[in-house]
Design a protein that fits this description.
Blueprint lengths: L1 H17 L2 H20 L3 H12 L5 E4 L1 H14 L6 H20 L3 E4 H4 L2 H19 L5 H7 L13 H17 L7 H9 L6 E2 L19 E2 L1 H14 L4 E6 L9 E6 L7 E3 L21 E3 L8 H4 L14 E3 L1 H4 L2 E7 L4 H5 L2 E7 L4 E10 L2 E8 L2 E8 L5 E3 L4 E3 L5 E3 L3 E10 L7 H8 L5 E5 L8 E5 L9 E4 L6 E7 L10 E6 L7 E6 L30 E10 L1 E7 L12 E7 L4 E8 L6 E8 L3 E5 L8 E5 L2 E4 L1
Parallel strand pairs: 3-4
Antiparallel strand pairs: 1-2, 5-6, 5-8, 6-7, 8-9, 10-13, 11-12, 11-14, 12-13, 14-15, 14-16, 16-17, 18-29, 19-20, 19-22, 21-26, 22-25, 23-26, 24-25, 27-28, 27-30, 30-31, 31-32
Length: 643
């Protein structure tokens, strides 16, 4: 026995001398933690939990530099002031990023967990997490589930601290009375409802790099990013043993940005996405139009399918730098695999791995990866009704197209999009950005609206001179009138259920002149700043919004009686329609980039006709005068089809 111990000690010393400093630190940490659970308080499951954390610890770290510390201190001091309006916190974020943003993003020091995590910290984390699982939920989900979704001591790359005990002390008293009696398999849902409420969660979108907040400070936030509020909910739920994780879409398939949210994982089979203060099931019901190309789950453990990619030695996009994200796209939507033919180019032959990208209003953003096989690459589990572009990732974040764009259609069919430059067509353009369900509803709110004239202020002698018919396009519409004499007053009488919604109303006499307005009046039960004067202010984004669905109307008194020959109206809108006098350019994807077809100026009708457009092309309409929102589209059956 003594000889065996002596031999083990010699082998240990030999190992120490043969390893580098990093390996020695890791080995010592592992020995301290495992010997504690093996010898001091024998517990096989805790020992296994420790191994789970230790074996995956080498890929985790915190980011640090002096500017990041100053950013934390500045924002923490702001959140300790008396509560302010959301606008104040937005300004303070802008001020903090102005002061520290550039320095925070450069010269970052990576602090590996293998050097930064102590045995005591790890043991306390394991003991606290294990205690909550065993006491409250061990009959609901298994040990592996516990390791993946309750045990991890960090959410991302935030500074380490004792967040678990802080939030456990906050949340456990709120749910203890509901779970201390007879076991009930629905208790976890009740605990969810109690914990996920009362959070003030106004969103701030960072204009540049913003570090992840320390987890123990997240409960002070009143305004923050989706990531910050997701991390807060993860900390709160995991602290009382409820399994949760962070899922995210790196880039929506048909609009800008991506999104992060939390998922409740009550057992190995069920998954419920949620945001702060939300009922289960609501999170994507309110985002039904957003197409999802890929969804990933942030894990603590290394994902085996990603290890060949991350260890390939090829340049890696930031999304796939760490092998800790798990593809969960088919949890959310129906998916398809796509095998894509590649261009014959040297870069393709140099790369083992290629990527699928989607459009984000301005550029292509990587959302998936695939391994090349000769002149083909296969991408798996792609969301449908999305257009993808196969690309290679070059250095300096450059994306190089390596194949034609392709659509994964609603039925799963994979359709290459290749412009036919031997055949051309004329296209009718009315927008530069997708036409949403909400915009369609706003257009329909104007239908059956009436324009009336009168000489009495109370409109007791009113005459209807124009009635709005079907409205299916979000732009200015012109109506000729039946006005046969002059009148002092004109009003817009909105249909029931429309809340009076209208952005602009313009009146013209028989010479095409706009008469002078003496005053405006009407049913001005406006909601907030949305007063009836907005209908006549020339600002297409301001609008009238009546507090009640019915009864809204707005009138003008002319400086002198007028004969009105034409009325123009604009439904409440997003200002992505064709604007008179603004400069536009139409592009098509030529296989490598967006190539110009024509430049033109917006007209009064809000409709542009462009000749000599290649058929079957992927198109993009850009407003050079203003704006950021623009989407790719195809032209099918005389209409713009948005992707």
């Amino acid at each position: 026995m003594r000889f065996n111990k002596f031999l083990l000690k010699c082998l240990s010393l030999l190992l120490l001398f043969s390893c580098n400093k990093e390996d020695v630190v890791r080995w010592q940490l592992k020995e301290q933690v495992l010997s504690y659970y093996r010898d001091s308080v024998p517990n096989y499951e805790k020992c296994s939990a420790a191994l789970f954390l230790l074996e995956n610890m080498d890929i985790h770290y915190s980011l640090h530099n002096e500017s990041i510390d100053r950013f934390y201190a500045f924002m923490d001091s702001i959140y300790q002031l008396p509560v302010q309006g959301n606008g104040f916190y937005h300004k303070m974020y802008d001020e903090a990023t102005r002061r520290y943003g550039r320095e925070m993003a450069v010269n970052q020091i990576i602090m590996p967990d293998t050097r930064n995590v102590t045995a005591q910290y790890l043991i306390e984390n394991i003991d606290s997490a294990y205690s909550m699982w065993k006491r409250l939920w061990a009959d609901e989900y298994g040990f592996e589930h516990f390791c993946n979704y309750v045990l991890p001591y960090r959410m991302g790359h935030e500074p380490l601290n004792d967040w678990r005990n802080k939030y456990m002390k906050q949340q456990h008293p709120r749910v203890e009375r509901y779970i201390n009696y007879q076991d009930n398999r629905f208790n976890m849902y009740g605990a969810y409802a109690v914990v996920n409420q009362g959070m003030h969660t106004a969103i701030y979108y960072p204009k540049g790099f913003m570090p992840e907040f320390p987890a123990d400070k997240l409960d002070r936030l009143r305004v923050g990013s989706c990531q910050s509020f997701s991390d807060l909910n993860i900390a709160r739920f995991r602290s009382i043993g409820i399994p949760v994780a962070k899922d995210f879409v790196p880039q929506w398939g048909n609009c800008r940005m991506g999104h992060e949210w939390v998922v409740l994982l009550p057992n190995e089979e069920l998954c419920f996405p949620f945001g702060p203060n939300e009922d289960l099931g609501w999170h994507f019901f309110g985002r039904s139009e957003n197409t999802l190309p890929k969804a990933f789950r942030q894990m603590y453990a290394k994902q085996q399918e990603l290890l060949p990619l991350t260890g390939s030695g090829e340049p890696l996009p930031p999304l796939f730098e760490s092998p800790t994200i798990m593809d969960v796209t088919d949890t959310y939507t129906t998916t398809s695999d796509a095998t894509v033919r590649l261009f014959d180019m040297p870069l393709v032959k140099e790369r083992q791995y290629l990527y699928a990208a989607v459009f984000d209003n301005r550029n292509w953003k990587i959302v998936d990866w695939g391994k090349r096989h000769g002149r083909q690459v296969t991408f798996t589990k792609l969301g449908r009704q999305v257009v993808y572009l196969p690309v290679a990732y070059a250095r300096h974040d450059e994306l190089v197209p390596v194949g034609h764009p392709f659509l994964v259609a609603a039925d799963g069919d994979v359709q290459p999009i290749v412009a036919d430059t031997a055949h051309y067509e004329t296209v009718r353009l009315i927008r530069k950005y997708r036409f949403t369900y909400w915009l369609n509803q706003l257009c329909q709110r104007t239908e059956r609206g009436r324009f009336q004239v009168a000489n009495n202020e109370d409109f007791s002698d009113s005459v209807t001179i124009a009635t709005i018919g079907k409205v299916r396009e979000s732009r200015f519409h012109s109506l000729p009138t039946t006005c046969d004499t002059t009148y002092r007053y004109l009003r817009y009488l909105s249909p029931d259920g429309s809340y009076g919604n209208m952005a602009e109303v313009e009146m013209y006499d028989s010479l095409g002149n706009r008469p002078g307005i003496k005053r405006m009046f009407g049913m001005n039960e406006a909601a907030g700043r949305y007063r009836l004067e907005n209908m006549f202010d020339g600002n297409v984004l301001s609008f009238y919004d009546h507090r009640l669905g019915d009864g809204g109307w707005a009138a003008v008194e002319f400086e002198e009686p007028q004969h009105i020959s034409e009325v123009r109206f604009l439904p409440r809108n997003d200002d992505n329609f064709i604007r008179e006098g603004e400069q536009y350019e139409l592009y098509y994807w030529d296989g490598r980039q967006f190539a110009s077809i024509a430049r033109m100026e917006g007209n009064r009708e809000g409709v542009l006709y462009v000749d000599s457009v290649p058929t079957h092309a992927l198109l993009l309409l850009r407003n050079h005068t203003k704006g950021q929102e623009e989407r790719i589209f195809t032209y099918e059956n005389g209409e713009q089809v948005w992707w």
